[in-house]
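Model it.
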Amino acid sequence: MGKPRASSNLALGTTSPQSTTSIGRCTGSRTSIGASPREQRGLRGARVKSQFHVIGFDDAPFRPEHRGDVGVVGAVYSGPRLDGVLYAKVRRDGVNSTRRLVEMVAGSRYAAQIHALLLQGIAFAGFNVIDVNGLYGALQIPVVVVVRKTPDLEAMRRALMQNVRGARRKLALIHQAGPVEPLAGVFVQRVGMERDEAERMIRALAVHGAVPEPLRAAHLIARGTAGGRGRKRV
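Modeled.
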């Protein structure tokens, strides 16, 4: 989530797809030409048995006084290999993070290959809370929210109610994402993925510590887009 770092580790606004960029090369695996979306998802599920294809998302740090847009980076991974980078912007404490993520993934060359989306917290750019159920419904790709520590939901509620427009709706989205559960050395909320598979994925992708490598890479790249400032190492 957003990192002023006056951040909380945590939508749906109107955005323009033109501001979303895809950088990098395509992975070697491709779906069959002419396959329907359902068939493509089946092929994607077969491939994941041997290797996870995921995108890890994190947002760039920003100063407490900043108002406006904040960068969001998606690190595309095929197993242990970084295959590409996605980039877009979301509004500080806004409501467009879910739509931006849908645009980033659906408009990229990687969409049919992706097995899961990993999010570094349930909100970006402060309290631009992600509707993880809506994200899963729009893309039909499982979503796993990952944090290092159990969120202080009461502190989050107080901060939202005191400082953020649309606080009740944002709190509802947080609760609708499901319980926060310990898993493989981190804490997660998950939609569309069984616990055993989520644990296997996190362990397979956790190369340097407990945080999956796609999230660590997204964090480092996002920090670089903000001139290198930001919170401590992930």
